[in-house]
């Protein structure tokens, strides 16, 4: 049994604001240490539950946050940037299940540090379904026939996961008070919870179906700023809806939609505000 683990940072225990997740800020080193410990909780539980291979993908920012020297020695780590499939790099049909840990709510929604990829995105739709990082990544997993069996993060991420993926197991390590204030478990308690929930998720994995993406999905991204939409619309195949900040892309499949999203958001970040 192979288990895939995507580890983001905003949903990690005790992390409440930018100072914990930005490598230039004062609390980042503390944050990445807790992040690594939380990844280990998933990994250890997966091996104890019968996995013979666990692949971990560092999925935050420049994707080089996890301290490999402190990870479980039998883990394989995908680290660094640029990754063609970003937060789901290395995920394919050989895995029995995927675990998303350290995840957060999508843009424009309540939740600690809620966003979708960049802070210039207000919303992303696949056909008529609004998705954040969690949902888009789950669709890619579903394309490969892999169910997302467990999601760990704040309470709002758990609610988002449960609405998208029937029978998914969730581990709530902190409750949202505001976008930069949480009521959190301690790391030791959170890691215990995550181990228990990971074991339960693997036991119940047959009851979770992959989130199957639509054929030929129409992706739409609503940006916060008109200039961001202009930049994103420079990518061939896009259409900028007149007098809006929405840019659409008709994809052949969800993998093309995902890579298009990466390009469009990277372009959008070139916008200046002067």
Topology:
Elements: E1 2-7, H1 18-21, H2 28-48, E2 53-58, E3 76-78, E4 97-103, E5 121-126, E6 129-131, H3 133-143, E7 148-154, H4 155-164, E8 169-178, E9 181-184, H5 187-203, E10 218-223, H6 226-232, E11 238-240, E12 246-250, H7 254-268
Parallel strand pairs: 1-2, 1-4, 2-3, 4-7, 7-8
Antiparallel strand pairs: 5-6, 5-10, 8-9, 10-12, 11-12
Helix pairs in contact: 2-5, 6-7
Radius of gyration: 18 Å
Please give the largest β-sheet: 7 strands, mixed
Helix percentage range: 25-40%
Poorly predicted runs of 5 or more residues: none
Assigned CATH superfamily of the largest domain: Dipeptide transport protein
Structural class call reads: alpha/beta
CATH fold-level assignment of the largest domain: Rossmann fold
Give the helices and strands as they follow along the chain: EHHEEEEEHEHEEHEHEEH
The coarse silhouette is globular
How many extended strands?
12
Beta-strand content: 15-25%
CA(first)-CA(last) distance: 53 Å
Compact description:
By secondary structure, the protein is an alpha/beta fold. It has helices at 18-21, 28-48, 133-143, 155-164, 187-203, 226-232, 254-268, and strands at residues 2-7, 53-58, 76-78, 97-103, 121-126, 129-131, 148-154, 169-178, 181-184, 218-223, 238-240, 246-250.
């Amino acid at each position: 049994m192979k288990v895939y683990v995507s580890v983001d940072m905003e949903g990690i225990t005790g992390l409440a604001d930018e100072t914990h997740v930005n490598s230039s800020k004062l609390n980042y080193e503390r944050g990445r240490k807790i992040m690594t410990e939380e990844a280990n909780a998933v990994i250890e539980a997966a091996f104890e539950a019968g996995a013979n291979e666990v692949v971990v993908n560092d999925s935050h920012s420049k994707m080089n946050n996890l301290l490999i020297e402190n990870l479980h020695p039998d883990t394989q780590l995908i680290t660094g940037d640029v990754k063609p499939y970003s937060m789901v790099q290395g995920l394919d049909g050989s895995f029995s299940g995927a675990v998303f840990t350290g995840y957060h709510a999508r843009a424009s929604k309540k939740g600690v540090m809620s966003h979708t990829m960049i802070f210039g995105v207000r919303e992303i739709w696949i056909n008529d379904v609004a998705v954040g990082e969690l949902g888009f990544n789950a669709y890619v997993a579903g394309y490969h026939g892999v169910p997302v069996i467990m999601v760990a993060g704040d309470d709002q991420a758990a609610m988002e996961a449960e609405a998208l993926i029937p029978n998914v197991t969730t581990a709530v390590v902190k409750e949202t008070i505001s976008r930069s204030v949480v009521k959190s478990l301690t790391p030791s308690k959170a890691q215990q919870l995550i181990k228990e929930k990971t074991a339960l998720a693997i036991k119940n994995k047959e009851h979770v179906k992959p989130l199957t993406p639509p054929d030929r999905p129409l992706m739409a991204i609503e940006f916060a700023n008109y200039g961001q939409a202009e930049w994103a619309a420079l990518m061939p195949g896009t259409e900028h809806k007149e007098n809006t900040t929405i840019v659409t892309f008709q994809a052949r499949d969800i993998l093309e939609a995902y890579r298009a999203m990466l390009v469009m958001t990277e372009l959008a970040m070139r916008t200046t505000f002067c």
